[in-house]
Every structure is written in structure tokens, then in C-alpha cells.
Fold:
Amino acid sequence: MSDGNMNLTLKVWRQKDANSSGKMVTYKAENISPDMSFLEMLDVVNESLSLKGDEPIHFDHDCREGICGMCSLYINGRPHGPKRAITTCQLHMRSFHDGETITIEPWRAAAFPVIKDLAVDRAAFDRIQQAGGYVSVNTGGVPDANIIPIPKVIADEAFNSATCIGCGACVAACKNASAMLFVSAKVSQLGMLPQGQPERWSRVQSMVAQMDEEGFGNCTNTGACEAECPKEITLTNISRMNNDYFSAKLFREEKVHDHSGGGE
Structure:
């Protein structure tokens, strides 16, 4: 095209709610600038649908800066689309070609029920974090953080784990819909630092128990989660969590059904 813009065909999953049957619906996305983000392209499509009196496509989004984890779209068979280490909101339309057909679906996991169309309920992740994702808080004066020496390699690894944004791409990529990469990142984020040691053993037991209760599948050991994670969280976290979990079960087993304050 002379102006460099693209005409695309979109095959979009439309579903009223979790209890309704869904189907793929075809739409035309016309005069799309290659400099648009993927979400901006959907905004354009939704505007045209609204002008026609049709219901817009529902999808999650918030910051549009790659840090909130809301933009959960399965694009052409991959979470967040064809590029590595980016979220959907960071994906630009120059990654596609004029005349291309793009298939857009929600995350597919029993633990992520569809709210509507492309939006899914990821409250299961919140409940997992609530089960053990906290540290003790002592009242009184606040000590200077610098008085607690932490080796740089440990601090860096904890920080890398903390970059997980909880988008759920790891679950969507896994053929068993496992949440092991997400949970292990949250366990590592706190368990590697001195402040996280008091709850270290109850935390891993509680969070794993909640993960199982939510209905996520087992780890497949194929590494699809790591390959599709927009923040490049590594499988090392899963190994670390497994080590803590089995150590806790062998030597520090606790009751984990009461998530209000750790194990008993």
C-alpha cells in the first residue's frame, strides 16, 4: 500500500461468559499503521464495531507499558504474540504483514475461566499470593535496610524473580496449564531475602497447596513457560521452589489450610 498501512483479517474468540459456548468470529482491520501497538489496533477495530452498532471485543488492558500483566492475549498460537520477552501491549503491528490473518484467543486454562471474549479471571493468582506471599512486619522503629548484608548474587536473583508481573503467559503456554513458574517466582522473590526467612517454609507449602486447590496442572518440564515469559523468568526458580518444598515437607511440615497467617 502506498501509505504503508495494512489491511488485516482477525479471527477473534467471542464468548459471552464462562458458562456460554464461544466461537471464532472474523473481522477486518483496515488501514492499520505498522507503528500501532496490538492493543491500539484492537481499539481501532472496536471503534468501527461501535459505529456499526456491534458489541466491541472485550480484552484486558491497563498500563500499556509492559508492567501490569493485564494484556493476556493468545496471538497466532503464542502468548503475547510472536516476539520474545514482551507483553501484548509492547507488540507492534510491524511484526505482521499486510493481508495477514491473525488469530486471537484468551488464555486457555480451567483455572482462568473466561469473563468475556478475550478477558479471563486470574484471581487464582491473587489467592496463591495471599496464601503465603508476605513477610513478618515488626512494630516499632524501622531498621535501615542497609544494615542487613545480602550478597549481590542473591539480591540480583531475588530481584529477577520479582520482575514477574503475573500475566499468566506461563500457564497459557503450558500444555498442562501449570502455574509452577509463577508460584516459584513469588516464592523465590521472598524466600531468598533475610526478611522472608521467618515464613520461608510455611510460605512454600501454603502457596503450592493453594496452586493445587485452584486446579492448575503439573509441571511438564518442557520449558514452554520460560520461553514465553515476557519477563524471562527462569526455570531455576522451579528447581529452587521444589527444593524448599520437599525440605519443608520432610522437616518442617505444617498445616496449610488456614491461609490467614501461615501454617500452624
